[in-house]
Amino acid sequence: MRTESAIHIRLKEQLNQLMEQEKPIILYFSSRDCNVCHAVFPKLMNLIDPESIDIAIININEHVEIAGQLLVFTVPTILIFCEGKEILRESRFIDFQKVERILNFLSEM
């Protein structure tokens, strides 16, 4: 999984700081042993411009509390936040066209 430009969430406080920024953020919930997660992530990375949107990877096995607070019960799950508000949630079977439309809209803001 290519993750150079992604932020790996290690602490809840780190996530809170990212959520407070005005810049849009993608939260990508995955698991080490999820083959679908490993297939979805590169497709997602191809859609984003790292200059205009941050992407944070959250391992649900290590951060059960964060996943629970955001009501994430399956992986992969993609949450897109803008100005602290959730604007898209895609789980399991990701609709990449919908994700791309939202990302295009955010990049024009």
Automatic annotation (TrEMBL):
CDD domains referenced in this protein's UniProt entry, alphabetically: TRX_family (cd02947)
Highest taxon listed in the record's lineage: Bacteria
GO biological process, one term: cell redox homeostasis
SUPFAM superfamilies: Thioredoxin-like
Sequence ranges assigned to domain Thioredoxin in this UniProt record: 14-102
InterPro entries, A to Z: Thioredoxin-like_sf, Thioredoxin_domain
Record protein name field: Thioredoxin
Organism: Desulfosporosinus acididurans
Higher taxonomy: Bacteria, Bacillati, Bacillota, Clostridia, Eubacteriales
